[in-house]
Design a protein that fits this description.
Alpha-Beta Plaits; alpha/beta; 5 helices; 5-stranded mixed sheet; 214 residues; membrane
């Protein structure tokens, strides 16, 4: 059957425009580079979109984080119905000091047992009542040395003598004493009410020189 027997239709026109047989026209030269071009363009766009996605959720990621100083739980704090006895501390608080850790009165520096009582004064302040005491009368008043002797003996001194003074007398009633008898000399000074008291190492015991009445 020849082509002249049928009128030309639309299918015949399409067939004329298409290639015939197994030989088709070759692809353009840039067709092989098309996947690489698409990858180069798509990679930056994908990275940019990923950065935008991550940057839009910083607050939400930090919201679920635990606080740096979590609040103590019920097990770490003392419950209202749990009393803390003497010497015990609240669990979890090692810096608190219980009643049993406080210093007792006997351990403090100001306790009565630590302070020196009047009877426990230093050895330098102890008075030796056996110290020899000489009462020398340089006043010319009869019986003045004897009366003074009795006052000193009334304080417990057992070695007291009354004599007349010879030599150069002082200008006022004076007590002489060596360093070893300082405590006794000061006590006798208070008993007699004499203002002048002079340390001298050439005397033995306490020497009281009277140039006038007491």
């Amino acid at each position: 059957m020849s082509e002249a027997q049928y009128p030309e239709d639309e299918f015949d026109r399409i067939g004329k425009r298409l290639p015939r047989g197994a030989h088709r026209p070759g692809q353009p030269w840039w067709y092989g580079f098309l996947p690489f071009v698409i990858a180069i363009i798509a990679a930056p766009l994908l990275a940019w979109a990923l950065l935008l996605l991550l940057g839009s959720h910083p607050a939400s990621t930090n919201t679920g984080a635990e606080p740096s100083n979590p609040a103590p739980t019920t097990s770490d704090t003392a419950r209202p119905n749990e009393s803390v006895g003497p010497g015990e501390t609240v669990a979890g608080n090692e810096n608190s000091v219980g009643t049993g850790d406080t210093a007792t009165p006997s351990e403090t520096a100001t306790s009565p047992s630590a302070t020196a009582s009047p009877a426990e004064t230093p050895a330098a302040d102890k008075v030796d009542k056996a110290t020899s005491v000489s009462v020398l009368n340089a006043s010319g008043i009869n019986g003045l040395a004897a009366k003074t002797k009795d006052k000193i003996a009334a304080k417990g001194y057992s070695q007291v003598v009354a004599e007349n003074f010879t030599g150069t007398k002082p200008k006022q009633n004076t007590i002489y004493y060596p360093a070893a008898s300082e405590a006794e000399a000061k006590e006798i000074q208070q008993v007699l009410g004499i203002d002048m008291i002079v340390p001298r190492e050439d005397v033995t015991g306490v020497r009281v020189v009277l140039v006038g009445s007491l």
